[in-house]
Design goal:
By secondary structure, the chain is an alpha+beta fold. The protein contains five helices and four strands. Strand 2 and strand 3 form a beta hairpin.
């Protein structure tokens, strides 16, 4: 299939920034023939480097105004079941098994603090295997697009 090269990296960089960009527009931006860009994208998909093209929703416009991170300790025998149960809740965005003082880190978004309280006090509490939670409400955040480089 060939190695990843600088052109592949340029294409990935542009697609990470805006996956909706058309092939002709992308080809002009990186100064490469559209057919080459198209075939490279197809190759990157086939190789599994591009897993999917997606949409990023402005959740605040849908009323999700509170973002929180929840650290949870769980019964080790129930860890997988707890993770699955958490992902069934609409407010849970992702669940991560981690090292450190918590077993799981859970990213959640709710419409308001009352909904967050209900989520933690009632819905999380109803999941068999969660033994302790600690909630961190996000005050502000900054993010950036990932930067990928070729191995040297």
């Amino acid at each position: 299939m060939g190695k990843i090269d600088d052109l592949d990296m340029k294409i990935l960089k542009e697609l990470v920034t805006d996956a909706s960009v058309s092939v002709p527009k992308l080809s002009k931006k990186i100064n490469v023939n559209p057919s080459v860009v198209y075939s490279r994208i197809k190759r990157l998909i086939k190789r599994g480097l591009i897993k999917k093209f997606t949409v990023v929703v402005n959740e605040q416009l849908l009323g999700y105004n509170v973002e929180a991170i929840v650290g949870a300790n769980v019964d080790s025998k129930r860890r997988a079941a707890v993770m699955d149960a958490l992902l069934e809740l609409e407010q849970v965005r992702s669940v991560h098994e981690v090292t450190g003082r918590f077993d799981l880190i859970i990213f959640v978004k709710t419409r308001n603090l009352d909904e967050l309280r209900d989520l933690i006090s009632n819905k999380f509490a109803a999941i068999d295997g969660i033994t302790h939670t600690e909630t961190f409400v996000e005050m502000s955040s900054k993010t950036r697009e990932p930067v990928y480089t070729l191995p040297k």
